[in-house]
Design goal:
It is built from 2 helices and 6 strands. The chain has 128 residues and is an alpha+beta fold. The strands form 2 sheets. Strands 1-2-6 form a 3-stranded antiparallel β-sheet, with no helix packed on it.
Length: 128
């Protein structure tokens, strides 16, 4: 049985999967939402309240002094990828969603039908 270690951000009360690549490949936005549904159905790491993070939650991980990845020095995350889907849909083009480019720590948008980005699930201590 795989041990899905969690990382708690005490500043935001968000809980992240230590392995930042739950789908093992880039997926579409709809597939990202389906992956979250499956994590909850299967009780990933003993929890069933996972979600696709919004763009502000993803951006809270970024350390602007770092790059490749733009995470704080000594971060505990494994298997991090270049880009991650958020749950935040673009206001101007609803077939696009906000994404985090982790190598640079930059935000942008991705076309939802494209298999372009990865899934990094999050939950909250307040919802546990």
């Amino acid at each position: 049985m795989v041990n899905y270690t969690l990382v708690t951000d005490n500043l935001t009360d968000l809980v992240w999967a230590r392995r930042a690549n739950v789908t093992k490949q880039a997926v579409t936005w709809d597939q990202a939402l389906q992956a979250i549904h499956e994590l909850n159905r299967d009780g990933f790491a003993g929890m069933s309240n996972w979600r696709l993070p919004n763009i502000n939650e993803l951006e809270s991980l970024v350390d602007c002094r770092s790059h490749s990845p733009a995470l704080p020095a000594g971060h505990p995350f494994e298997e991090w990828q270049e880009g991650y889907w958020s749950s935040t849909t673009s206001f101007f083009e609803t077939d696009w969603a906000w994404v985090l480019y982790l190598h640079k720590g930059a935000c942008g948008v991705g076309h939802k039908p494209g298999k372009t980005f990865h899934v990094w699930p999050v939950t909250s201590l307040q919802g546990s």
